[in-house]
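Record pair follows.
FIRST:
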Amino acid sequence: MKKLDWNGFTKCTHIHTTVEKLYWCWATKEGLTSWFLKDAEFLRQVKLLNTSEFIQPNDVYTWFWHNWNGKEEGKILKANV
């Protein structure tokens, strides 16, 4: 029997929307918090981005998840600018 590796998984889903709307959902605070996160902060050179501003490489983020009091921090490595 093959041993399962639970270090990651893939889930496929069909999303009926435009590419532009999908990118907005992933690349802005407003989009991410409309469906995925409780809250998000993005900083560019120590300046807080507004809610509808698209992220860019080297921006830093802090994500706040639903049902978890912690936070996740990181740096944007790539973006479709």
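SECOND:
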Amino acid sequence: MSALSVLVFGGPKTLGQLAAIEQVKPPTMTRLVTALEEDGYVRRQADAKDGRLTMIHPTSKGERAMAAGRSRRVEALASRLKKMPPAQVRELERAAELIAGVARSE
């Protein structure tokens, strides 16, 4: 599912790009992509600019699976935040502001 997440949230990739991102060897990624393809989560398509390359794209089923997983994680986190004391929530809000500032400055 990690590779599927890369495709859904990062866009189509070649097998080699996906293997590098996931830090696995290309034969391992080939097996993973084949399994994802057989399960209907991804599809392979020739690159429009360079027909020698094959791009791996998420399918709508793959996108729905990632969206559902994200939704479950957000709901679980929101539930935990509601149980926290207000002072701790304010600390987290401040930390989030600091992190966002660091991310913007790069």
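COMMENT: The chain has a mean pLDDT of 94.
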